[in-house]
């Protein structure tokens, strides 16, 4: 699996060297950066610009690419004994997913469930700046069954929704799930009905929406840290 971009490149080099198969460089590095790369003892291959662009499928690789081992998703069962789980429903943009995973990891979420049949996980790794490699991520599109099973384990289900209770005014349960929906379509009514409470963020200046990753960061911080 190819990942690219300087930030995620050096994150993996520092924290997950064992996942690297091969390193590709398409530009001259600063001496300090090259010393870190050499220290990894991984195979290094220099690429011309055209080859690098092809590997990155036209993305902004900044001259730093690597081939890493395939991503291993976590099992849903692994999350049932945790305290704070996030479910991303109908969110397909890897930039938003990656930003949410990055915030979730930084704020202490125990695991993220992608309620989808598939996801471009290489894009999620890149847009999370590598944090996806340190987060338990489950890929499972049977969201209603998962909600039922989590409720049986004592989880309280919060759903982010327009018109929901202001997150700053509620007392958050210890074992909790936060469901985030896409900006365009939100969360399906049948899922909202299964949830225990809808929550939102009080807006000012006649503005009624935030990017889903920005909204998540606010909700998550409040739910985790009070």
TrEMBL record:
Recorded GO CC terms: cytosol
Domain of life: Bacteria
InterPro entries from the UniProt entry: Alpha/beta_knot_MTases, Ribosomal_eL30-like_sf, rRNA_MeTrfase_TrmH, SpoU_MeTrfase, SpoU_subst-bd, tRNA_m1G_MTases_N
A Pfam family the protein falls into: SpoU_methylase
SMART domains on file: SpoU_sub_bind
GO molecular function: RNA binding; RNA methyltransferase activity
Matches recorded under SUPFAM superfamilies: alpha/beta knot, L30e-like
Keywords: Methyltransferase, Transferase
BP terms from Gene Ontology: methylation; RNA processing
Residue ranges of domain RNA 2-O ribose methyltransferase substrate binding in the record: 2-74
NCBIfam families to which the protein is assigned, alphabetical: rRNA_methyl_3
Record-given protein name: 23S rRNA (Guanosine(2251)-2'-O)-methyltransferase RlmB
Gene that encodes it: rlmB
């Amino acid at each position: 699996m190819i990942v690219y971009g300087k930030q995620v490149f050096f994150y993996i080099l520092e924290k997950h060297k064992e996942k690297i198969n091969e390193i590709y460089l398409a530009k001259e590095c600063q001496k300090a950066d090259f010393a870190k790369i050499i220290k990894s003892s991984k195979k290094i291959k220099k690429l011309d610009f055209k080859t690098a662009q092809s590997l990155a499928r036209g993305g902004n690789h900044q001259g730093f690419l690597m081939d890493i081992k395939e991503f291993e998703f976590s099992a849903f069962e692994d999350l049932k004994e945790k305290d704070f789980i996030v479910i991303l429903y109908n969110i397909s943009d890897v930039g938003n997913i990656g930003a949410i995973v990055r915030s979730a990891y930084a704020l202490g979420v125990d695991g993220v469930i992608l309620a989808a049949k598939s996801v471009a996980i290489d894009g999620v790794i890149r847009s999370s700046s590598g944090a996806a490699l340190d987060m338990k991520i489950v890929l499972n599109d049977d969201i209603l069954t998962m909600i039922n099973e989590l409720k049986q384990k004592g989880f309280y289900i919060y759903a982010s929704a327009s018109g929901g209770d202001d997150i700053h005014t509620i007392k958050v349960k210890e074992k909790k799930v936060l469901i985030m929906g896409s900006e365009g379509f939100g969360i399906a009514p049948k899922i909202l009905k299964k949830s225990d409470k809808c929550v939102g963020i009080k807006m000012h200046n006649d503005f009624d929406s935030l990017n889903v990753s920005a909204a998540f960061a606010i909700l998550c911080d409040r739910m985790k840290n009070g």
